[in-house]
Amino acid sequence: MVNVRKLLKLPPGDTRNSKRFSRSVGGNIAITTVVLLMAAVLALPLVYAVISAFKPMEEIFIFPPRFFVQNPTLDNFRDLGKYISDLWVPFPRYLFNSLIITTVTTTGNILICSACAYPLALHRFPGKKVLFDIVVVALMFVGQVTFLPRYLVMAKLGMIDTWWALILPDMATSLGVFLMKQFMEQLPISIIEAARVDGYNEFKIYWHIVMPNVKPAWLTLVIFSFQGVWNDTSVSTMVFTESLRTLPTALSQVSGGGIARVGAASAASLLLMLPPIIMFIFAQNRVVETMAFAAIKE
Amino acid sequence: MKKVSTKYTLREMRKSWQSYALMAPFFVLFSLFTLIPVAIAIILSFTQFNIFTTPEFVGWDNYIRMVLDDDIFLIAIKNTAIFAVVTGPISFILCFFFAWIINDYPKPIRSFLTVLFYAPVLSGQVFTIWKFVFSADAYGLLNGFLMKFGFISEPIGWFNDADYVLPLVIFVQLWLSFGTGFLTFIAGLQGVDGGLYEAGYIDGISNRFQEMWYITLPCMKSQLLFAAIMQIVSSFSVSSVPESLAGFPSVSYSAETIVTHIKDYGNIRYEMGYACALASTLFIFMVITKSLITKVLNRVGR
Asked: Chain B closest CA to A32's CA: distance in Å?
């Protein structure tokens, strides 16, 4: 075969350049314009959400409405602090609940899903294909569609109005098993066989060999799990005891307080939206590395 | 012959007990919160049940009632079908198209754009900001803008007006397009072997769209299927956007979806049998959609 790279005088290994033959300058300009337009449509509402958090009351209700803020203020955050301290249940309690539930669920999710993914990826045993097929079909049966029968099961088990209702279902996600399994399949089987020769049992191999080698996939599950649990609003239908509830319910109490609280509500939603975005910015490379294996072969 | 193979399987299973033990925690929780609920939904869909009394078998009554006696269900079906057949594919194509474009930029720009495109989904409840854009009074951004430039003289009700509710919910749902599927495409595109593009050039591919159709897409078939499944989930589970923007129920049920309809009958009216019939219908639609998509994707790049 002709070495195309040499023929075209390309540096080895640079895959981006390999596409330049099919790219025209006019096309690049047109496409960059499209990207910028789309980026603007996606970003402007978020920018508006950030700006609104700094708007004084008289600018929120002004005609004609303005996109930008004239006199930025921290009043909304001060008001938010005031409303928060007036809550019937102290605010730190909501924060604490959210942090505990998010941490426990995310940790459990990683441990349980990776323990299940390891045999599915690297062992041979009867029933393997069926079990994995079930996991793939179940990718569709997430909590947003099964919430009702799931509620019935949890009611039967006496989990309603306890944290179990928030924690346990989100620990066993088929997306978690799926991503972990796909990622583990690329581990060289030789390191596992070597460990077996050294007398490691499968549990030890899982903990000492497999887990340290799939850190990008951990981080991806952390991001997805964190994002899901942090923004979870199903709390309101699962848990009724106010002192057991989480941040989104505290926020809805603030914003539910009528028109005078619009500013404080924007401040609160700004504070709530930041953690997932910041986490993703730091984890992005690992997440992309993991998602490259998110493929279903038919 | 059969006996021997059963014996063999049993021996194999005993030998693999550690594998099963590792998978046990997942499958116990998974059965409890996914498999059993789906099975229960199907069983209860043939009963009348209000949580407090024992379920009473009623045959196909719930399903018959759905089609013949429930006008709002027909709206819910129509809206869910719009999300599945129109919004879903548009989202899917947008995700691929923009991931494909973004992949051409150098790494720092690519990373920045990835965060930016993913941010609306990441930030959870922030989509409620659209309430202020489409606010029904003159303080809303869009009404204010239209009035200032004289397009309208009275503020439009937007989410209070049955004519506008569904298109606006579709719009916001499209704004939330770039989720897990988008990330999968971003990742998958980086994995396409660069040598193939060079080979394609030698074979006479002359523009980027030919290259996408004949090289990139066929290489990404399995990512396409995964992203399609993620898209099915988000199209069929539309509920929080109409609920928080258009209210629950929305004006003359104009933004009702199957999921909001399930919530209406399950969480509010406690007609669990009927709600489970609705849920079972939803499951069946999802499974059918998935098998159709698998067939369509098999034609990609041909």
From this structure: 8
